[in-house]
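thought: user wants a sequence for this fold. calling inverse folding tool.
action: design(structure=
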């Protein structure tokens, strides 16, 4: 079926890493072929055979947006693809789950070898994932897992661990304030239809719900910075004694949080009267900077700079390698050992370890580069 493509309507960005200029002749490559005798098998013979390379491996990337952390993630993925001499096609759904499914249909029609996506909606993406499977195309996600279907693999931070780390910071600071774990905390969530939002919620509550003296006001912001600002303003007006704020994404909500607190005269340093405890998940420059300057308290930092390891697993799959559950060790990596588990849907999940950042380790350069290799501590 022919598909009409509107450059403005679909907002599809095609990025070809490989040159599109015509080439004089197809590239010659050497393929190793294993041949066995058909009658009496004495030994396996390895024969070198020249074959014509038809085209480079093509990776489709279905992005939820082209801004902020998503733009950086695309750039890092492209770098990994480029290292292998492959090419990459990028589409952008602008936060629309149906548009993302249409984008994946388009990538399937382009005959890509594998698809990577950051799902807009963990359940809705299953429709497209099943179509890719039927077409024999490997399907992967980064940062967020699908829910209700099996794909090849997803690579993500251990978001539940990060949520728990943020909760540990909150409990420790409340104990310092009151001598016991009690107080009122605002939780500004992400999209709870996505597993990343669910895990950051669940990890936080794994810890915080152990203490009956801590009351949590939970508000859903759906990764919308303006909505989060209004939520915070409304909650502070109704709860002037609010003790703490837990942000599911300080990268999305951080600067707006600071703006509201400054507006209300509540942007105060740790230890000052009226200081509101601030924790969150991500490890971006806003909260790292706030901790450095004495306004923020701690964070569960995710190693998003390492999500492009998914390209390594695509290469393994294209070479016929099977991935096993268990520890995955990479020497020198702070997220190592990661853990590969098969979830209830049958998807392999690679969980990269998160890092609890407080004022005690904020001056460590690795603390800043964990989320983004380009981040460095301020000069003192």
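)
observation: tool returned 380 residues.
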């Amino acid at each position: 079926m022919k598909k009409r493509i509107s450059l403005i309507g679909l907002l599809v960005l095609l990025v070809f890493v490989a040159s599109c200029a015509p080439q004089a002749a197809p590239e010659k490559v050497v393929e190793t072929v294993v041949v066995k005798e058909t009658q009496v098998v004495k030994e396996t013979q390895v024969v070198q055979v020249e074959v014509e390379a038809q085209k480079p491996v093509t990776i489709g990337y279905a992005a939820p947006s082209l801004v902020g952390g998503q733009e950086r993630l695309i750039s890092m993925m492209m770098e990994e693809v480029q290292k292998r001499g492959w090419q990459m096609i990028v589409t952008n759904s602008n936060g629309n789950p149906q548009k993302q499914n249409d984008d994946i249909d388009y990538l399937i029609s382009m005959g890509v070898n594998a698809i990577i996506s950051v799902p807009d909606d963990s359940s809705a993406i299953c429709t497209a994932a099943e179509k890719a499977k039927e077409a024999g195309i490997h399907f992967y996600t980064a940062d967020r897992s699908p829910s209700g279907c099996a794909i090849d693999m997803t690579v993500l931070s251990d978001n539940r661990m990060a949520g728990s780390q943020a909760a540990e910071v909150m409990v420790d600071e409340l104990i310092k304030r009151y001598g016991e774990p009690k107080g009122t905390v605002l939780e500004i969530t992400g999209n709870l239809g996505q597993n990343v939002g669910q895990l950051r919620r669940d990890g936080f509550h794994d810890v915080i719900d152990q203490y009956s003296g801590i009351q949590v006001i939970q508000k859903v912001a759906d990764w919308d910075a303006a909505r989060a600002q209004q939520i915070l303003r409304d909650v502070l007006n109704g709860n002037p004694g609010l003790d703490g704020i837990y942000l599911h994404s300080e990268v999305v909500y951080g600067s707006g949080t600071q703006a509201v607190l400054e507006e209300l005269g509540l942007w105060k340093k740790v230890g000052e009267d009226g200081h509101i405890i601030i924790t969150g998940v991500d490890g971006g420059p806003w909260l790292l900077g706030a901790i450095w300057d004495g306004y923020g308290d701690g964070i569960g930092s995710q190693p998003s700079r390492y999500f492009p390891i998914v390209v390594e697993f695509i290469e393994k799959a294209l070479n016929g390698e099977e991935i096993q559950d268990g520890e995955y060790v990479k020497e020198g990596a702070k997220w190592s050992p990661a853990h590969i588990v098969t979830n209830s849907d049958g998807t392999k999940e690679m969980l990269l370890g998160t890092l609890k950042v407080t004022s005690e380790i904020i001056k460590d350069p690795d603390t800043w580069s964990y989320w983004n290799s380009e981040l460095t501590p301020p000069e003192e």
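thought: summarizing for user.
answer: Here is the designed sequence. The domain at 45-151+304-351 is CATH 3.40.50.2300 (Rossmann fold).
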